[in-house]
Design brief:
This protein has 459 residues and is mostly helical. The chain has 18 helices and 9 strands. The chain folds into 3 domains: 162 residues, no CATH class; 110 residues; 133 residues. 53% of the residues lie in helices and 6% in strands. It has a 4-stranded antiparallel sheet with strand order 4-3-6-7. The longest helix is centred in the last third of the chain and has 23 residues. This is FHA domain-containing protein. Keywords: Repeat. InterPro entries: ARM-like, ARM-type_fold, FHA_dom, SMAD_FHA_dom_sf.
């Protein structure tokens, strides 16, 4: 969506005129003798009902209860952005539609995009004319509950809309009405409009951190909030900085410490931490230290120890360790001292988990990578814990069939046997005893065969 909503032309003869954006759609209520709701497509790119394009050029498409109305038809239908039309709800206009669409986009971590590759929205403004139409079609709550369910009439001819009487032009009724519900994480109420896309993201951060801080009893809300926080910060340095400035790093770590019995909180807490430190930007490097000062390293290792059997917690913790220790000698040493045995236990206990094996081997490589004497000490400790055997087992089980495990094992092995390091001779003996050379030859032969087959298929 370019501009999610915009100032449109005034109403003429009670009918909504074409809005300024290509996602413009209107709902019209048909008189009592034909109690149907029609969707009139006034867009350029089309509005879609259950995946099919709605009628255009003045023809209305009847809506049935449960129909999926899409302002944007995604090229990947499984993540298509859509609204569900309910017969009793005629308020799918303007800000309510935009807030629900944006919330669905946020929850699925898929950017709401246009088939014509329009630029991302930069600003959301009020649409006064459409809001007036919303008021006209509002059904008082005490009337709505008494409305009978009527049979569906047949489709109407092209001239049907032209035969309708003009809509009334009076003021909104004074009877009790249900309020249009806005998502707490994507509010588009009139009092905050217009708002920039950046401003809206900052409001989302504020709402999410408030939910995380206030979820003392509802673990489901907390788990969902942590997951959404991770998604909006995943590739956005502005959001990462906002979270850091609002002491969000400490907030995330503290809820992990409080909810030690919840595997879901530990998983999503780790993912939220990953989202704040996963790039090489200045704010991510600063967040590394914020996590450490808040006791985040201890919380991550504690989660691994408490949920030994829970492969997903182990995986999320390993995902945290890699960016936290990357090119940071102090955090490398601290994490190695805290969690090396736990990494080896995870790799041994969850040998069947391919992703966990790959990330665990990468974590071993990252923790031991470097030229300082402390790195020699970390590599020596890894050898004592059986690093050569762990790498060999991962290769034996997955190296011939999974490219990610193969390259992770090669990385961990290269760090372990680094030439010139103090434990170099011990590393060579350990890898030889584990049968590493024939394993590597077998895995590389399988990889070459896979690459050849792939090239043939491509050709």
């Amino acid at each position: 969506m370019e501009q999610t909503s915009a100032e449109s032309d005034p109403l003429r003869n009670g009918q909504q005129q074409a809005r300024q954006l290509h996602e413009r759609s209107s709902l019209y209520d048909v008189p009592a003798e034909q109690p149907r709701v029609l969707l009139l497509d006034c867009s350029t790119n089309g509005t879609f009902i259950n995946g099919a394009r709605a009628f255009s050029q003045g023809l209305g498409t009847p809506l049935n209860d449960g129909d999926r109305v899409s302002l944007v038809l995604s090229v990947t239908p499984l993540v298509e952005q859509y609204l569900i039309f309910h017969a009793e709800d005629k308020q799918m206009l303007a800000s309510p539609a935009a807030t629900r669409l944006r919330m669905r986009s946020l929850q699925t971590s898929n950017t709401l995009s246009c088939p014509l590759r329009c630029v991302a929205p930069s600003k959301i403004v009020a649409n006064a004319a459409v809001r007036k139409l919303v008021h006209r079609f509002k059904v008082p709550a005490n009337v709505r509950s008494r409305q009978p369910q009527l049979p569906q009439p047949p489709a109407q001819p092209a001239s049907f809309l032209q035969s309708l009487p003009r809509l009334p032009v009076g003021e909104p009724p004074e009877e009790e009405e249900e309020e249009i519900q806005m998502s707490q994480l994507c509010p588009l109420n009139d009092e905050i409009l217009p708002i920039s896309a950046t401003g809206l993201r900052m409001k989302q951060v504020d709402a999410l951190l408030h939910q995380v801080e206030s979820s003392e009893k509802d673990s489901e809300v907390l788990i969902s909030s942590l997951e959404t926080l991770a998604k909006i910060a995943w590739n956005d340095d502005e959001v990462r900085k906002e979270i850091a400035d609002r002491e969000g790093v400490s907030t995330i770590v503290n809820v992990m410490k409080r909810w030690t019995a919840s595997g879901g909180v530990q998983c999503n807490g780790c993912l939220a931490i990953v989202s704040l430190v996963r790039s090489e930007s200045e704010i991510c490097q600063s967040n590394q230290w914020r996590v450490a000062r808040a006791g985040g390293l201890e919380a991550i290792v504690s989660a691994m120890r408490r949920f030994r059997e829970y492969a997903m917690v182990q995986l999320c913790a390993l995902l945290c360790m890699v960016p936290l220790a990357l090119e940071n000698n102090i955090l490398q040493a601290h994490l190695a001292g805290l969690g090396l045995p736990d990494i080896f236990l995870a790799l041994t206990q969850h040998l069947d988990q391919v992703d966990l094996q790959a990330k665990g081997l990468v974590a071993l490589g990252v923790l031991g990578q470097g030229e300082e004497p402390m790195h020699d000490a970390i590599r020596a400790r890894q050898l004592q814990l059986g690093a050569a055997r762990v790498i060999a087992r991962a290769l034996e089980h997955h190296g011939r069939s999974n490219e990610e495990v193969l390259w992770a094992a090669l990385f961990a092995l290269a760090v372990l046997v680094r030439e010139g390091s103090a434990p170099h001779s011990l590393a060579l003996r350990s890898t030889a005893a584990a049968g590493m050379l024939p394993l590597l030859q077998s895995c590389m032969a399988a990889y070459k065969g896979y690459r050849k087959r792939k090239i043939v298929i491509t050709d």
